[in-house]
Amino acid sequence: MLAGAPIMYIPYQTMTLGDLHIRLATTAGAGSLIIGVLLIVLGLTMWFQPQSRVFAGVATILLALVSLVVSNFGAFIVGFLLALIGGALGVSWAPGRPVVEEPADERGADDGPSGAPAAPAGPSLVKE
């Protein structure tokens, strides 16, 4: 989601250096806007629909590569790197399994997790 903002904003930005106004808008300005909106939508998809995270991650990586050509070198590499990292995290992330613990009543108070008596915490100082 963070990658979409610089890719949408920077190509339409007008910078001022003294009396000189520099406009970065190119003929592909609409393409930058579309790529930025799609990156934000894919970020929201990864967030709210984790089962489609691999598709959204791959699509994010592809849009990051396209943004290099379309929107001023991926909005001066900032948007490109954010999209690339976000897409890679989306592809590699997997939701964890919920931890289910037994209630304390069903196992003994001194028993370990498997029901066996708990082992001493450290070496014993008592001589036999």
Can you walk me through this structure?
With 128 residues, this protein is mainly alpha-helical. The chain has a domain at 4-92. The protein is 50% helix and 6% strand. The protein is built from five helices and two strands, in the order αββαααα. It has helices at residues 4-9, 29-48, 53-70, 72-76, 78-92, and strands at 14-17, 20-23. Strands 1-2 form a two-stranded antiparallel sheet. Strand 1 and strand 2 form a beta hairpin. Helix 3 (53-70) packs antiparallel against helix 5 (78-92). The chain starts with a helix and ends in a 36-residue tail after the last helix. The mean pLDDT is 78. Residues 100-128 are annotated as: Disordered. Keywords: Membrane, Transmembrane, Transmembrane helix. It comes from Streptomyces thioluteus. The chain crosses the membrane at residues 20-42, 54-70. This is Integral membrane protein.
Average pLDDT value?
78
Distance N to C terminus: 65 Å
Oligomer: single chain
Whole-angstrom Rg: 26 Å
Alpha plus pi helix count: 5
Kindly name the structural category. Answer: mainly alpha
Query: Spans with pLDDT under 50 lasting ≥5 residues?
Result: none
Write the layout of secondary structure elements.
Elements: H1 4-9, E1 14-17, E2 20-23, H2 29-48, H3 53-70, H4 72-76, H5 78-92
Antiparallel strand pairs: 1-2
Helix pairs in contact: 2-3, 3-5
What's this, in brief?
With 128 residues, this protein is mostly helical.
